[in-house]
Amino acid sequence: MIQTPIDYVSRIIRVLLLAVIVIASVTTSQRAQAGPAARVIARGGGKTIVQGGTGQPAFSPVITTIAFHAEQRSQVISGGFECLAIVPAVQTGNGSGQFTVNAMYVTGQITSVQIEGDMATLRGAAIITGLGAGTNVPFTFVVRSGGPGSTAVLTTEGSPRLVFNEILLEGSFEVSGNESNL
Predict the structure, then answer these.
(1) Which residue has the higher pLDDT, 26 or 55?
(2) What global pTM score does this model have?
(3) For every residue of 69-122, which 3-state class applies, written as one string?
């Protein structure tokens, strides 16, 4: 049987169409197997200043870099929390505005979230170096949605218990609007 150019082109089109259908079926099947998409509950990041700095008697400023995200997939809450606190090497004079000393680093996993309006309370366990150092240290991060000027409070339940009242200088914090305990 002799194939004409039209038969040849028709055959190529059928093969390509079949390939597209197979690829679309595989992609749809993979999406269906992955389950429901994760719903972002809270996320954000930026630079903050700790109110009152190191506290009495020195009141040295403390700057933090914070990043967090919490999501829900089915009934499971997951997410991560990072906070690096830095302070100046000297308290006054030349160099006191250069934040170069790592005072504390918190890296943790978020395991529960409570939403109340534009505020989220994130809870989990962290590894902490520097102030309050320890492993599997419970922490709570209460964050209010917004940009610069928004507030957050980080509490670590190690020894000693530490509480940091923070004001966002750069970046943003986002909280979903559904009130619930997750």
Answers:
(1) 55
(2) 0.78
(3) EEEEECCEEEEEEEEEEEEECCCCCCCCCCEEEEEEEEEEEEEEEEEECCEEEE
